[in-house]
Amino acid sequence: MLIFILKRVAGMIPAMFAISILAFTVIQLPPGDYVSTYAAQIAQTGEAVDSAVLANLRERYGLGENVAVQYFKWIGGIARGDFGQSFEWNQPVTELVWGRMGMTALISFLTLITMWAVSLPIGIISAVRQYSVIDYLTTTFAFLATAVPEFLVAIVLLYISTMWFGVSVGGLFSPAFENAPFSLAKVLDFLQHAWIPILVIGLGSTAALTRIMRANLLDELHKPYVEAARAKGLPEGRLVLTYPVRVALNPFISTIGWVLPALISGELIVSTVLNLPTAGPLLLQALKSQDMYLAGAFILLTGGLVLIGTLISDILLAISDPRIRLS
Amino acid sequence: MSAPFDTAKDAELLDQQVHAGSLVAASQWALIWHKFSRHRVAMVALVVVVLIYLVAAFAEFLAPYDPGKFDPRYTFAPPQQIHLFLTDEEGTRFAPHVLGYKSQVDPKSFRRLFQPDPEKVIPIGFFVEGQPYKFWGIWEANRHFLGPVDKADPFFLIGGDRLGRDLLSRTIHGTRISMSIGLVGVTFSLIIGLILGGISGYRGGLVDRVIQRVIEFIRSVPTIPLWLGLAAAMPKDWPPLQVYFAILIILSLIGWTEIARVVRGRFLSLRREDFVIAARLDGVSEFRLIMRHMMPSLYSHIIAAITLAIPNMILAETALSFLGLGLQPPIVSWGVLLQDAQNLRAITQAPWQFVPGVCVVVAVLALNFLGDGVRDAADPYAK
User: Fold this and answer.
1) Is residue A250 assigned to a domain?
2) In terms of Cα–Cα distance, which of A144, A142, A147 is closest to A115?
3) How far apart are CA B215 and CA A112, in angstroms?
4) Of A256, B165, B177, B280, whose Cβ has the fewest other Cβ atoms within 10 Å?
């Protein structure tokens, strides 16, 4: 098992490298370099520009040298935990990024768990009771859910809760808890707020997962081994759960590879609409003001988050299926 | 009588019989259509999609106004109701009309409040004269499909926006941009996907492995941050048309992977088909082998992949524009229109600004159903 995990981790290295190249390209894309932009910003406020500071910054990011040198200075800094400087906030990116990324990771993780918890039983029921009312309902719902953009659901929810119930749903904490230290009350407050983004973000993927589970299970349900078990007199509930569901679970787990990117994308948009203290609004802001080191860090870290998620799903797959573990 | 195994002569005979009408043969397309037309939901979806594209094609004619025409007197004017019959001192008669507005400014919030004014009857009709426009940028015209008989009268069927522009006209013009983004974007994706997927499936080996790794990688990157990053790099002073094509290319850079996957899969399975091997052994050139022998059995699958890719393009453009990094005004797309519905105040004051969102959902649903139908019908010989 350990060897399997090590192999997977080693396999992640080229992907991580490719993502870092991608993030670096995005940093490089806007015309001009950041130090000139930064100098122009300072000059606008009327303060004197200290040319020694600028030269220092140029040296630090290797500006003016070739792209490869710049890349290695940037990635080398990240290896030491230095993501560069945010020119808009005038703070090291590291200080801005981690709290926000942590929230994004937490929300994505909770969404993933909720998604599985919902789509697994519903998928099983609509496969076992194919063409029943529940099956038709989930099918209709699944088609709708994949066609509606998440941010639209978020706005409609915002509208309904304000107009009909008179509560605002933005944010992740009540103002009283925003800066409070960690406590049970804070966690409860968080959960009270978090279920809305979790619901909105997970909607589309939950629908897709339910369909996948249903299709997987339908493939299994009519196989001879199920028939044989039934003929031996195994109670129907135990029969379905012990054999076909276990087999159908495999592709279900491996879908995390594409569900997670979709989740993180959805999280970025929804958090902008609902104004959550996650990576989304800050990334958007950074991109609009071309605060590229901050934006690059977010793109790199969201990519990293997906890789970690894929690794976890690979490990889960290996646990549930010995064929994968041993090959 | 022909010899028992003279295939060439048999084929000729068959051709003659078909031409003479003594033998009925259905082409592959006829079979596909037959199978597709039995899929009722997909047929409804097809009608809806055709209607939407017709709206996109005739936007200038169908919209009562120019999308940029604004009138500060009608800021957030609520939707008007169409009345078919008019009752006055002369009795009740058929005279389609809408009612004008009585407006007053709320002293507290300084917002304009509107009430329908029964005194102001605005007759409406089909093919009325209105604002002149250039149809498709070529023909001068001033007839509009539906509008007020007197073009100076206010006409807001689904309400006005924050500048007093007619939301219906803007949504109709947005249909053109949003739907064309889907179509043109998919064309770009198709070109990339066809070439790379084709090479990958036809050549196999190392090239295949490299292309497959690239596809896997692209699919594992969260799309929105990447799209945003690329879109943010666009210079702010680019003209709208250039932005439009830049957005298309950005969307296609990721959208091609699904099409490439489908094409590769089909090529892989076709390569081993008897008729392809036979053609190759006959010494057919590679180009002819691909174009003449393999492509015909690919078309229907490609069409299905395209139909399923268009809604994703539309959703992606809507999301980008909604976040303010996609298309920029004065270009109007559904996503650009939804920007106005972004904050709570705007939507509580004027909930009709959701209408472009409804259009997105209807279009995406219809295209999804259509794509599903085509995919199921793509192989008419399957059970």
Assistant:
1) yes
2) A142
3) 24
4) B280
Contacts of A259 (CB under 8 A, 6+ apart): A112, A115, A205, A208, A209
Give me the interface pTM, i.e. the ipTM. 0.80
pLDDT in tens, B197-254: 888 888 878 888 888 888 888 887 888 888 888 887 777 778 888 888 888 888 888 8
- Kindly report each contact of residues A279-284 with a partner whose C-beta sits within 8 Å and lies 24 or more positions away, as own/partner: A279/A97, A279/A100, A279/A101, A279/A103, A279/A104, A280/A104, A282/A96, A282/A100, A283/B225, A283/B228, A284/B228, A284/B323, A284/B324, A284/B325
Separation CA A24–CA A299 (nearest Å)? 9
Best residue in A20, A26, A152, A306 to probe B by mutation, most B CBs within 10 Å? A152
**Is the link from the previous residue into B330 a cis peptide, with omega within 30 of 0?**
yes
Mutate to test the interface with A, among B344, B347, B355, B370 (most CBs of A within 10 A): B344
B333 contact residues in A (CB cutoff 8 A): none
| Cβ–Cβ under 8 Å, residues A285 and A273 | no
User: Model's pTM, two decimal places?
Assistant: 0.83
Are residues A30 and B232, on separate chains, in Cβ contact within 8 Å? yes
Size of interface A-B (CB pairs under 8 A): 120
Query: Residue A226's domain spans which residues?
Result: 94-326
- Kindly state whether residue A305 falls inside one of the protein's structural domains: yes
Overall number of domains in chain A: 1
Does A22 contact B226 at a Cβ distance shorter than 8 Å?
Answer: yes
Question: For chain B, how long is the longest CA-to-CA vector?
Answer: 99
Q: For residue range A292-317, what is the model confidence (pLDDT) as tens digits?
A: 788 888 888 888 888 888 888 888 88
Nearest to A276 by CA among A51, A99, A55: A99
For residue A59, the tally of other CB atoms under 10 A from its CB is 12
Instruction: Give the CATH number of the domain where residue A307 resides.
Output: 1.10.3720.10
Q: Is residue A293 part of a domain?
A: yes
How far apart are alpha carbons B228 and B220 in whole angstroms? Answer: 16
Q: Are the beta carbons of B324 and A283 separated by less than 8 Å?
A: no
CA distances from A61 to A26, A68, A95 (A): 15, 11, 18
| Neighboring chain B residues of A261 at a CB cutoff of 8 Å | 219-223
DSSP letter at B97?
E
Helix (H, G, I), strand (E, B) or coil at B127: strand
CB-closest option in A149, A163, A298 to B360: A149
Q: For residue B360, list chain A residues with Cβ-Cβ distance below 8 A.
A: 149, 152
Backbone angles phi and psi of B87, in degrees to 5: -115, 120
Domain presence at residue A78: no
